[in-house]
Write a structure and sequence with these properties.
By secondary structure, the chain is α/β, with parallel strands linked by helices. It has two domains: about 210 residues, 3-Layer(aba) Sandwich (Rossmann fold), CATH 3.40.50; about 60 residues. Helix 8 packs antiparallel against helix 9. The longest helix is centred in the last third of the chain and has 27 residues. The relative contact order is 0.16.
Length: about 300
């Protein structure tokens, strides 16, 4: 049976910010993200993977902010859990600082891929397992009811160039591609690349407010973005999640074999329930997730005690 497609007239609806920022060490990613979040208004929550550096700006931001310390392993599942924790705490803007650890950190996608490939001897098969976990994290970022700002480290190189004023050769540090899976820039509404002077080149901007510009991010940047985000029509209200879909999503939670698989299933369930504003279904999915997570942890402890993971 052929699927029926729905065509509708394009309408700009109100939206939440999805901002990506990359830059080398010292480029000001964290502080720039906090300033923009301050301009957006509401409670700010920072998921800190940088060994406590998220607290360093507490005295510099009016109104303060909240910090969730995320320690290794930096699996996509742990990031997803941190994001949902922030959402449930009533945070308006979530800053993920930094998203790079989910890719290249201990327990991140590259680390997990290498370990799986070493055990199986099949790199391609390993990506088949790791990629859905990475995609679940991206979906959690994109489908969050909060504004999301994600910082990423940039691969760094040093270039030698001629100083136009003195004529001497100088060495300058430059940031290149973000330390994250290729193509991550396309997932965001706006993507900024910061340099060592704390200036941001806006290479992608669906709002068209800063496209192609070089700016110094601040609270006013956040206020301008908020005005654009709130200028559309109200999102249409939906009905409850269909019972058959609710049962299928619940079953995927109950049958998850690993924690990463569990959070991949939970992200899909969370997205479906949130899209319809079905709070009852969301509460049920959260309960099933918590129960299955506890069961998996108990099973892991039991297997470890019997040497299964040795």
């Amino acid at each position: 049976m052929m699927k029926n497609f729905e065509i509708h007239r394009a309408t700009k609806c109100r939206a939440k910010l999805r901002l990506g920022m990359s830059g080398p060490a010292g480029s000001g990613k964290t502080y720039s993200a906090l300033l923009i979040a301050h301009g957006l208004g509401g409670r700010i929550g920072l998921i800190d993977t940088e060994h406590g550096s998220g607290d360093l700006y507490a005295d510099l931001l009016p109104g303060g902010y909240y910090v969730l310390q995320l320690s290794p392993p930096f699996t996509p599942a742990r990031y997803i859990e941190a994001i949902h924790t922030m959402e449930q705490a009533g945070i308006a803007t979530i800053i993920v600082d930094s998203l790079s650890h989910a890719w290249s950190g201990e327990g991140g996608s590259l680390d997990r891929h290498g370990k799986i490939a070493d055990r199986s001897g099949n790199s391609w098969q390993a990506w088949r397992q790791v990629t859905p976990e990475h995609n679940a994290l991206v979906e959690a970022l994109l489908q969050s009811p909060c504004h999301v700002i994600a910082t990423m480290r940039a691969k760094t190189e040093y270039v030698q160039e001629k100083d136009e004023r003195t004529g001497r050769q100088i060495v300058r540090k430059i940031g290149l591609a973000p330390v994250m899976r290729d193509g991550i820039e396309y997932e965001f509404t706006i993507f900024m690349e910061l340099d060592s002077q704390h200036l941001a080149h806006v290479g992608k901007d669906r709002t068209q407010l800063f496209d192609g510009m070089i700016i110094k991010p601040d609270s006013e940047t956040g206020r301008e973005l908020l005005a654009w985000l709130d200028s559309g029509a109200q999102q249409p209200q939906r009905s409850d999640l269909p019972e058959a879909q609710k049962l299928a999503l619940g079953e995927s939670l109950e049958k998850a074999a690993t924690v990463d698989e569990l959070y991949s299933a939970f992200t899909a369930a969370y997205r479906a329930a949130h899209a319809l504003q079905d709070t009852a279904a969301l509460d049920e999915f959260t309960r099933l997730k918590d129960e299955r997570k506890l069961a998996l942890e108990v099973q892991y402890d039991t297997d470890t005690a019997h040497g299964v993971h040795a």
